[in-house]
């Protein structure tokens, strides 16, 4: 490469290096001469944000301002910069390169399921040649379509796949060609995602505040075409709703609303993701059909008249 003699490239990965000390050793052990440009690429840099005092990021970004160091921070999290300490954020450039994810198609979803089922374990390697036939099974394809329509989430699909393989192992069934495999897949799906009757019971058991928070999520999905959103965005939408229609449900403390959202996640109405950084910026998504939510709301008692008007506007 033409630039090999003029530049040193360093790679630091937050998923591999578990603490700032080890990561700094990579940077400090550099053999770069003082006049040679250093290009430091920090993969999964959000991992370093939640550890300690963000020493690594501060050191690298500070060096990029005063020396011949260029730092590229890479992350799949959209909210990672919001979690930076003030001293670190002040040294971060305003230059961003963003790659928007295209919407997930059912074909993409099916291919991902095939990848999740693939294994390198010799004990189960014979199943790799049976994956496509298993996915083509009418019952499996129907359930896979249900999962896609309800969630469009690779995270949920991976949970269902792991549950399915555990159930297969528990029943001592080693082959995907077994007539019991499709039944076990259905059971795995129901274990991770509640069926419609169960979900309806859950929705009807919510408190009025929890129901309003869920309706705000529905509004974000329906009108803003959002697949996921942060707790903060839900709370802001909730405040707009209650200020206009139900002032008695307004609360000053965000912590109360955060606890309610956490409860909705534990009830599987919203997706529960691993917490990283501030709770306000945790991302989630609706894990229940929004039409089911709206139909359940009409059965909710007692339902304030003001909220009925808001729901009518939502359905138009």
From TrEMBL:
<dbReference type="Pfam" id="PF14629">
    <property type="entry name" value="ORC4_C"/>
</dbReference>
<dbReference type="GO" id="GO:0005664">
    <property type="term" value="C:nuclear origin of replication recognition complex"/>
</dbReference>
<dbReference type="InterPro" id="IPR016527">
    <property type="entry name" value="ORC4"/>
</dbReference>
<feature type="domain" description="Origin recognition complex subunit 4 C-terminal">
    <location>
        <begin position="125"/>
        <end position="246"/>
    </location>
</feature>
<protein>
    <recommendedName>
        <fullName>Origin recognition complex subunit 4</fullName>
    </recommendedName>
</protein>
<dbReference type="InterPro" id="IPR027417">
    <property type="entry name" value="P-loop_NTPase"/>
</dbReference>
<dbReference type="InterPro" id="IPR032705">
    <property type="entry name" value="ORC4_C"/>
</dbReference>
<comment type="similarity">
    <text>Belongs to the ORC4 family.</text>
</comment>
<keyword id="KW-0539">Nucleus</keyword>
<dbReference type="GO" id="GO:0006270">
    <property type="term" value="P:DNA replication initiation"/>
</dbReference>
<keyword id="KW-0235">DNA replication</keyword>
<keyword id="KW-0238">DNA-binding</keyword>
<dbReference type="GO" id="GO:0003688">
    <property type="term" value="F:DNA replication origin binding"/>
</dbReference>
């Amino acid at each position: 490469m033409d630039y090999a003699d003029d530049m040193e490239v360093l790679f630091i990965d937050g998923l591999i290096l578990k603490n700032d000390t080890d990561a700094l050793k990579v940077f400090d052990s550099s053999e770069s001469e003082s006049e040679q440009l250093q290009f430091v690429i920090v993969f999964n840099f959000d991992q370093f944000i939640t550890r300690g005092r963000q020493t690594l990021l501060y050191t690298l970004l500070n060096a990029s301002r005063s020396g011949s160091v260029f730092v590229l921070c890479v992350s799949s999290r959209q909210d990672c910069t919001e979690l930076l300490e003030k001293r670190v954020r002040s040294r971060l450039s305003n230059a961003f390169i963003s790659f928007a994810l295209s919407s997930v198609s059912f074909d993409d979803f099916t291919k991902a399921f095939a990848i999740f089922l693939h294994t390198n374990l010799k004990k189960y390697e014979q199943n790799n040649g049976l994956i496509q036939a298993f996915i083509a099974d009418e019952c499996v394809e129907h359930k896979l379509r249900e999962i896609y329509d309800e969630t469009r989430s690779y995270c949920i699909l991976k949970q269902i796949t792991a549950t399915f393989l555990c159930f297969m192992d528990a029943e001592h069934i080693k082959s995907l060609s077994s007539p019991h495999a499709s039944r076990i897949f259905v059971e795995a799906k129901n274990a991770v995602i509640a069926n419609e009757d169960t979900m309806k019971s859950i929705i009807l058991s919510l408190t009025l505040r929890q129901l309003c928070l869920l309706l705000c999520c529905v509004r974000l999905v329906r009108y803003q075409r959002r697949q996921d959103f942060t707790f903060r965005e839900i709370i802001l939408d909730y405040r707009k709703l209650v200020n206009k229609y139900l002032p008695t449900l307004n609360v000053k403390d965000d912590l109360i609303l955060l606890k309610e959202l956490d409860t909705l996640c534990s009830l599987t109405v919203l997706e529960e993701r691993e917490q990283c950084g501030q709770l306000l910026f945790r991302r989630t998504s609706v894990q229940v059909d929004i039409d089911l939510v709206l139909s359940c709301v009409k059965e909710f008692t007692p339902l304030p008249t003001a909220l009925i008007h808001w729901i009518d506007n939502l359905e138009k």
